[in-house]
Design goal:
The chain is of the alpha/beta class. It is 33% helix and 18% strand.
């Protein structure tokens, strides 16, 4: 609904799980109306987003929907990603590990668009360390590196073999809330 009220945020790339791509299409029609019905669902590795193709009416394609897994198969250039004004990362907890190809691809996209919307009902599933990747994507200047994030905000300890990660430390909750209050 935010996008329908802010047409300057278009075109929009939605990155989601494969099983919800058609659900996203239905929600776009329900929330934005039939004027936004030109939605491309990318399901082939050789697909090029129609928003990037003026010959195909690129300015009329408001949404492109793609799955996390399809990102690996695409060979889209940074120039193509820069055609989008907004990226929505649905269920952003799927990029919790900053070392994965999935997180790297989403990070590459987010660097090229003006607006990033990260959505999740369960953004932290196991520990506060999982929150780093999306914080880094949303505000890399505030959360530049994983070790610094852990040191500053997260309860960590060693079990004698490896480092364990817990939740946001009690003494860091106020500063964490303050540094994230404008976007969470």
């Amino acid at each position: 609904n935010v996008l329908a009220m802010h047409p300057e945020k278009f075109p929009c790339l939605i990155v989601c799980k494969s099983v919800v791509k058609s659900q996203w299409y239905k929600q776009i029609l329900e929330w934005c109306g039939p004027d936004y019905g030109l939605v491309q669902i990318v399901d082939k590795g050789f697909s090029i987003p129609l928003v990037a193709n003026p010959a195909m009416g690129g300015d009329r394609w408001k949404f492109t929907i793609i799955s996390f897994d399809m990102l690996r198969r695409l060979n889209w250039s940074d120039d193509i990603y820069s055609k989008f004004n907004t990226v929505i990362i649905d269920e952003c907890q799927h990029i919790k590990n900053p070392e994965t190809w999935r997180a790297a691809e989403v990070r590459k996209i987010a660097k090229k668009v003006k607006n990033v919307i990260a959505a999740s009902g369960t953004s932290v599933k196991n520990n506060a360390g999982e929150y780093f990747t999306i914080l880094n994507i949303m505000h890399p200047e505030r959360f530049p590196d994983f070790k610094g994030y852990l040191f500053r905000y997260v309860d960590t300890w060693t079990d004698g073999y490896k480092q364990k990660v817990g939740g946001i430390r009690e003494d860091a909750q106020e500063s964490f809330n303050k540094v994230t209050e404008d976007f969470i």
